[in-house]
Write a structure and sequence with these properties.
The structure holds three protein chains of three kinds.
Chain A lengths: L2 H24 L13 H7 L7 H18 L7 H5 L18 H9 L14 H4 L27 H16 L18 H13 L7 H6 L3 H13 L14 H8 L3 H4 L18 H13 L5 H8 L3 H12 L14
Helix pairs in contact in A: 7-10, 8-10, 11-15, 13-14, 13-15
Chain B lengths: L9 E4 L11 H24 L7 H17 L1 H7 L7 H5 L6 H34 L2 H10 L8 H34 L12 H27 L6 H32 L4 H9 L3 H26 L3 H32 L5 E4 L11 H21 L4 H4 L1
Antiparallel strand pairs in B: 1-2
Helix pairs in contact in B: 1-2, 1-3, 1-7, 1-8, 1-12, 1-13, 2-5, 2-13, 5-6, 5-7, 7-8, 8-9, 8-12, 9-11, 9-12, 11-12
Chain C lengths: L7 H37 L10 E2 L2 E2 L5 E6 L8 H10 L11 E8 L6 E4 L3 H7 L16 E9 L8 H5 L5 E3 L5 E3 L9 H5 L6 E3 L4 E3 L5 H4 L6 H5 L5 E5 L6 H8 L15 E4 L7
The chains are: A mainly alpha, B mainly alpha, C alpha+beta.
Amino acid sequence: MPKHIVRLLMLIGGALALGLAAKWYFTDPSFYRYGFYRADSVAEIAAQGPAFKTARYCESCHAERLAQWSAANHKTVTCETCHGAAQDHPQKKAKLPIPADAVKLCTLCHEAIAGRPRAQPQVVVAQHAGAQQCVACHNPHAPKLAGVVAKVSGDVAAGGKKHAASCASCHGANAISPNDTWPNLAGQNAAYLVRILAAYKSGAQTDVMMSPMAKTLSDAEIQDLAAYYAGLSCKAPPGAPAAGDAAAGKLLAKNCAGCHGETGVTRNAAWPHIAGQKSVYLANTLKAFRAGLRKDPMMAGVARGLSDADIANLAAFYAAQSCGPATETRKTQ
Amino acid sequence: MEPLNHFAPYTGWVYPNETVIEWTVLIVVYPYLTGLVAGAFTVSSLYQVFGFQRLKPVAHLALLTSLAVMVFVPLPLLLHLGRPERAFNALITPHLTSALSMFGFFATFYVVLLLVETWFSFRPFIVEQAQRRSGLPGMFYRVLTLGSYDLSEEALRCDREWIFWLAITGIPGAHGLHGYVGFVFGSLKAREWWSSDLMPVVFLFSAIISGVALLIVLYVVSCKLRRIRIDLACLKGLAYTVWAFIMVALILEGLEFANIVYKAREGVEVIMEYVTGPLLIPYFVLQFGIGAIVPLLLLSYMIWRGTTGKALIAGVTLSAVLVLLSVFMMRWNVVIGGQEISKTGMGLLSYQVELFGKEGLLTAALLVVAPLALLWWLTRLFPPWADKAA
Amino acid sequence: MKGERISSLVARRAFLRKIGGAAAAAGAVAATGIPGVMRKAAAKSEPAATQESFPTPDYDWTKHRWAFGVDATKCIGCLRCVEACKRENHVPLDAHHFNTWVERYVYLEGENRARVDSQADPVNIAASGSQGEYRFANRYQDAHVEKAFFVPKLCNQCTYPPCVQVCPTGATYKGKDGVVLIDQSYCIGCRYCVHACPYGARWFNEARGVTQKCYWCYHRITKGMQPACVEVCPVGARIFGDRNDKQSPISLFIHNNRVQVLKPETGNEPNVFYVGIDKEVR
């Protein structure tokens, strides 16, 4: 064979050998170990840190919220579904609030649009609550409204009799309480009264005085009483000057206005009017919510952040408000 | 991160991730260049292997053209990669099930083959230059001799044998390389427009016509530049070659389209909407009409009438330019067209080609012109002209 | 040597010297590189696996066979999954890159074909206010809707993944637990896999120059957690689990329902199982 061809073949052979050596040298050692890939990459991928930490992570600090949430109808919606990923919380991100405009968040799931399964609770946003924020009425952790507004069909006259016989001694002959510690009942929302009396009766709510009283009442008697109180005038003589600062209370009351109305006259019959209510009673009740003695998912959350001074101020503010006219009260549904 | 300005507007329903057209004009250029390589090599093989003596004036030019273009074939691919610095990975761990990973080997093999065949073809010239020249050019030629100045009858006979066998190996090599490019597209079942058994063959035949057409243009232009009379027999030979292969290419492309329409699988409505809408001009008018049928008729007419002289030169050159356009449009319609039809079969996208930028028209144009510049330089080093070299 | 007339002998010598010089240089490189080569050789002859369980000490991928279920009858289209996925996996916050997305199919009265959109539709982006937030606009409120439903989509982690088949480098592969992974430090960014996927599940990360896709939050499932989208789904429309465990949610889901997969004609054998989808879903 001519020399030039031999040299050419040597050149090609050398290049081939160089190529093979390069392949051997540069191929990652873990390549081919489990297949046609770099085995080390599996562990690298698995090593990333998760951003979403799961409810178990949240529970280590927020057990109380979690308990409420896990007992209620939002329990399939985990913490991070609304609050976002818990990564960096609390170290770098001190808080994980839901957006200020919660309507946008809530309606992601609850706006009535084509395609959403029927089982999903949905509202036509414009007709449901106007411009009001969802959280004004619904506790996001337990969004089902406490008691669908009860139907009240009691006998006013029978209620009056029952009142005189059993309740008047404490709550006053006209259902205006003689002292600051017990609540006025006159003019209160009937649906609320039915709900709270039924709760005392069932034991869902407990009170040293009220629990034994309510246990003696029949369902019909509760209806009668509620109808009777709702029809009375709430006008009451001014009570003793309250301990708190009503002006400071007015500022705090903005947080309550969504449900209880601006001055404590609520538009929703499921909830109590608190305008003109006894200040000591209001303060005691808030403290009971705060301590968990009185149970209500929404109020527990609200009361948790209140100091004693806040409570006194709020009580002073509401006690000073005019209770009527209750014409705005929404008709029972 | 460079701004994402290349997302594609769409109609109907497309998957959200499809709104970025991933394979741009660079991937149109890539099979175009590969096709030119295969086509030019075909011409040189017709002479070297099949003894088409009338093609002798372009045989060496064809080889150099093939080499010059082949050098640039990997460039559009490299430029298009998200991580070009890792391209080496495809060579050290080539995934044997991937058509794309085979590219490195096909291409390397083929570049080596072209280099060796060119080297053999020009060896007498190299040796002569090595002995005659001094200085840097002399050094260049001396290195190329591999230290052997043996031009004996025995050595030359050996060279001719090598050239013959290399040309024979090169035929499946070049055509395999291009058939494989068709396979890259045809093997993807995800896209109805690509997924076709005919795709490799269609690519192959369009490759051949584009390469021959390029040689026609190069030959005519080079003769004009060198003020040399055009060898009409050679030009006619090239024209016959284009003429024959256009017919096959046309029939294959027509068959492929007919298959899609006739089988009318899921999503055919969208395909029909596409070819009768956005694709009407690039596909039917440019690729088929002006690019293939017009040159076919023109060439047929000239062959029938026995046209000769200046008219033949003008007619054949015009046909060749049109064929070059047609084949480019064919690449465009496959690569871009396939991506403009959504995988949902329920929507169409539209590719927004950018002018500047890494994957813009300008880069593409440069990539098409660059091999010609290299070829010009190569013809300086290794004059392929039969009239002088012989 | 310049200008000197050289005989063929001299030329040959010059050439050989060149070769010799090159060889010497190569030798020198090799000599300095010998420790490196030795290390490399040592690394290659390492025993196949030094740890007992792979890929992490707490997770053995041979013991799991992951699968995913989608109950389209439950999906409410809230898109919390899409948002969570983008956050969990650092997916660009625009309308063109998604590991998972949700499609809405709406049949209007008298129409035989569905109108389909996803959260990436301009109308829905207008409703959410930004490309980084997701919401389905109430666009059919005034129309007569005959039938409508949502369909979450994600990577199917096919049993015979076409994306893995076409990857030229082995940068994407199917793990022993069934998840198709991408080695982002090995991917060259050719995007062949993007085209090979019939489901549009893969996308190209322009900033990093590599392809990405849903990997069932591999970093979570190997730690015993659920994928982020499953974690945040408020209605249980996404089901995930181990098919090796007969009591896992996914095993029960597949067992108790008549499940189907997307584009079965491709032969990819997807591992995301759907309930409650319709003829137009593909």
